[in-house]
Amino acid sequence: MPTAPTPDLWPDAWREARLHVVTGKGGTGKTTVAAAMATALAESGRRVLLAEVEQRQALAPVLGCSPLDDHERLVHVTPAGGELHALAVDARASLMEYLRVHYHLGPAGTVLDQVGAVDLATSIAPGLGDVLVMGKLYEATRRTPRHQRRRGTPESYDVVVVDAPPTGRVVRFLEANAEVADLARVGPIKAQADAVTAVIHSDQTVVHLVTVLEEMPVTETVEAITELRAAGLRTGLLVVNQVRDDGLGEDDLDAFHAAVDGDVDLTAIAEELRAAQVPDPDETARRLLEHARGHAERLLAEGEQQEILDALELPTVLLPTLEGGAGPRTLPRLAAALTSQVGALV
Predict the structure, then answer these.
(1) Domains, the chain, with CATH or none
(2) Where is the ArsA/GET3 Anion-transporting ATPase-like domain (predicted)?
């Protein structure tokens, strides 16, 4: 099992970030980590918005709430006075809101939606969906009591946490507005795209990566970090998720290496089992040795992947494998594990 890092890994610069983007290869638990990070920030007394952008309804089961939509919803109030709000950002709804706020197309926008023009616009230009989603998130980070907002939503948020697309698509998602700004030379679309791009490339935004100690997720993580750095985007925490406790102490290391090398006296083990009156001691000894060797080989493989991650020189957080999976009962444990390793988030 990798060694947990010392506390206070959360640099002062990150404490001021308003937009925390969480990405990772599918199956690594990025949605759960995003929810844990948002929960930890809310537990520190902040007003937090947690947003998913892929319309998978993956957050609701983790948070223990009904399916999310494009309306910001209060899902948890913490003892410290923090608030956790959540929503599922929808490109079509974001376009309708954009038309209403920036072009005052209330009834006209509804007509466009009814005739299918809105769905057509977002389907024939897939990048437009990313632009609209990022625009919605930008609005949430910049909102103040003076800005227009949907009735019933908070006047402002301290932090926005995004359950972002997976590593293979996250840079394209974040850079969509930069491409639009290059195409739209003038006008409000150009101004909006430039403003979003400026925030994405500023100290206000940080991208956290989630992985597990397996070859493919680690490889994708390394590639994503290279791509993020090349694009000038700030990387934050590297979260190694689903870390298993190997249960080994220093006294077990000799036996561990013996199992790896195959240097184990199978007859002696069988004799001990026979003395303990274990049925079929020879077959039981063989199966025990096979299981121990497989366990040792897996730990070695995980150690090799951890060495690859260590070379990235990013502040690393280790989150444990949870019995029964991720959900509203186990989420506070992950949030506490995160906070204990990165120090206070405020």
Answers:
(1) 12-247+313-342 (3.40.50.300), 250-295 (no CATH)
(2) 20-178
